[in-house]
Design brief:
By secondary structure, the protein is mostly helical. It has one helix and no strands. 0% of the residues are buried.
Amino acid sequence: MPQLNPTPWFLIMLLTWFTFTVAMQPKILSFLQTNSPSTKTTLPHKTTPWPWPWT
């Protein structure tokens, strides 16, 4: 099975990443987050043992 020639595909990959980082990334990062991170401290959950019927 022949391998692809990487010369044109490498240029396409570079142009794609350049387009993403220059044009699309600032637009995506400018959106506001809908759920802001909470500063509330979490308490550990109290667990109860499982009532096994054969014990």
